Amino acid sequence: AAIRVHPSLTLILAILQLALNHLKTGIAPHHLTTWVANGVLPHALNGYALLPLDLKDKVVMAKKFFARSFVPPASVVSDEANFLAVACDWYESPCGHDMMKAMEDSSDN
């Protein structure tokens, strides 16, 4: 099956969430969005401003992808992480069962 995923900083946060769940860090989507909001994880809010000048020139056409004016809700990051996990059959893997539990626990917060 094919899926269409649009590049976005929310997608990057969802991929990061999948990796953190795989590593069993206990970091939930609300932690990520809090860190974006308070400046600890600024790349997810305005990554374009943090790029070196030579990279800015190379990605200027995709500037909208790298910069946004809002922090996505934790539930959106969680939903997109779940979507990606289902799309790649993550839940069918041995690690996926642990991740499903972590995602369910994090959505309660």
In short:
The chain is mainly alpha-helical.
Blueprint (SSEs and pairs):
Layout: H1 9-22, H2 29-37, H3 43-50, H4 53-59, H5 63-66, H6 74-87, H7 94-107
Helix pairs in contact: 1-6, 2-6, 6-7
Tell me what portion of residues adopts beta-strand conformation. Answer: under 5%
SS summary, helix count: 7
Secondary-structure class: mainly alpha
Oligomer: single chain
Mean pLDDT: 82
Low-confidence stretches: none
Number of strands: 0
- C-alpha end-to-end distance: 32 Å
Outline the structure in words.
The protein has 109 residues and is mainly alpha-helical. The chain has seven helices and no strands. Helix 1 (9-22) packs across helix 6, helix 2 (29-37) crosses helix 6 (74-87) and helix 6 packs antiparallel against helix 7 (94-107). The model has no long low-confidence stretch (mean pLDDT 82).
Keywords, separated by commas or semicolons:
0% strand, globular, 109 residues, mainly alpha, 64% helix, single chain
